[in-house]
Amino acid sequence: MAKTSPAQFVRQVRQEASKVTWPTRKETGIATLMVFIMVTIMAVFFLAVDGIIAWLVQLILGR
Predict the structure, then answer these.
(1) If you placed Cys at 23, which of 2, 27, 55, 62 could pair as Cys (CB 3.0 to 4.6 Å)?
(2) 56: how many CB neighbours lie within 10 A of its CB?
């Protein structure tokens, strides 16, 4: 196990955090919008598939 003092650990964490490339506000907004669009598309898709499967089951069972 490495012998690292708490102060040295904090310095290393700050050094590594400074290397992180943070997204801009615009990039975050675009990514959020894309997530909402994909969730909506998938919800409509699964709603349609569920309706088709329910219709097929009712057709098979004769109800």
Answers:
(1) 27
(2) 10
Average pLDDT of every residue of the chain: 94
Q: Classify residue 5: in a domain, yes or no.
A: no
> Has residue 1 been placed in a domain?
no
pLDDT of residue 63 exceeding 80, the answer is: no
Sign of the torsion angle spanned by Cα atoms 59, 60, 62, 63: negative
23 Cβ neighbours under 8 A, 6+ residues apart: 31
pLDDT in tens, 19-34: 999 999 999 999 999 9
d(CA 15, CA 40): 40
Domains of the chain: total: 1
11 inside domain = no
Residue 34 structural domain: 22-63
